[in-house]
Amino acid sequence: xxxxxxxxxxxxxxxxxxxxxxxxxxxxxxxxxxxxxxxxxxxxxxxxxxxxxxxxxxxxxxxxxxxxxxxxxxxxxxxxxxxxxxxxxxxxxxxxxxxxxxxxxxxxxxxxxxxxxxxxxxxxxxxxxxxxxxxxxxxxxxxxxxxxxxxxxxxxxxxxxxxxxxxxxxxxxxxxxxxxxxxxxxxxxxxxxxxxxxxxxxxxxxxxxxxxxxxxxxxxxxxxxx
Amino acid sequence: xxxxxxxxxxxxxxxxxxxxxxxxxxxxxxxxxxxxxxxxxxxxxxxxxxxxxxxxxxxxxxxxxxxxxxxxxxxxxxxxxxxxxxxxxxxxxxxxxxxxxxxxxxxxxxxxxxxxxxxxxxxxxxxxxxxxxxxxxxxxxxxxxxxxxxxxxxxxxxxxxxxxxxxxxxxxxxxxxxxxxxxxxxxxxxxxxxxxxxxxxxxxxxxxxxxxxxxxxxxxxxxxxxxxxxxxxx
Lengths: 226, 234
What we know:
Helix content of chain B: 25-40%
Low-confidence stretches of chain A: none
Structural class of chain A: mainly alpha
Mean pLDDT of chain B: 86
Oligomer: heterodimer
Number of helices of chain B: 7
Radius of gyration of chain A: 18 Å
Shape of chain B: globular
Number of helices of chain A: 8
């Protein structure tokens, strides 16, 4: 267990170093998420109230669509020179690889989500009732709900010829429960939480994250071991 | 008596309905130098990947050092066509990462000098030529100090100086008692070190035995014909 944690921390370090060196991935993901929000803001018309009501949904769908870019790219670098296989043969424990890569993706999506919050406020005129604190608490939970199953399915589809299509096809249905909980919690941040439901939705989101992160660690070895 | 470094029994691997190798049975003693040869598409790379536990067989078994293949990975190093590097990291960072992740014993500085990359160690790998990438892959293998080292086309992409480095490396590994498996078309280059040979053709092991391959037989097989298994066969 101690060895897995040690290896995981080294994989995280490698992921962050790679993210920093190849900033294009971060910029592309952020730019794609922002473009989605802009398109939604135009597609939603100019009805201020409707835009505000749906701002949480637009924000999370924008992040989810952009996440496919980031997740796909994170495994493209692994299969390009068979670096993933080299790691497995070192040998690095598959769970350490999964958690290391998932944490790397989580950091990236959290950053993108944090930048998209002020963009949403401006584009959808959705000033959070009661401040930004809860909103910035929801973002990492939502990012975690996408990054764990996303890492899993990016690994699953990375060797396929049609991986760019396969990843969203596999991922989107799976993240629906997490997405619903993230949207509901975010909506309560934007519109106010008169009934005190925020905690319940955040608990649902956290439970979804626990299941997905747990399953990923258990199943990842079946994906990397041919 | 020490168990063989590699023992396969009817090992086969299939890709999308086609058998790349099938029915391979051999035993390579520890400390041996095995040359694997055969025409293009004979299944040499697949056999080496099976022996290196990068692939699991679809039928038969592959065991390393008398046990299952996967748990022996810390004792095995496999060098294939793909180098396993991260392009955005420098050569040194790639090696340091491998050393830390695998808990490897070797010295990064030492292996960089050994393969002649110490002056370019801080450059990102994306700026390396194919030969330099190959040298870096050798450096990572040396860092691991394996008991079983498998090389798939080790001379490919290297210049004459690189060939000399590889020759010296083979001699050193063999002298150290490391079991070495080399798949190459440059049979003459390694035949002096060779203690065993295995010939593959169309996914079948057609010859396996001690010593270097007989030159005449090599000539016939290189043309791609599937002849009778040799008398030394399994």
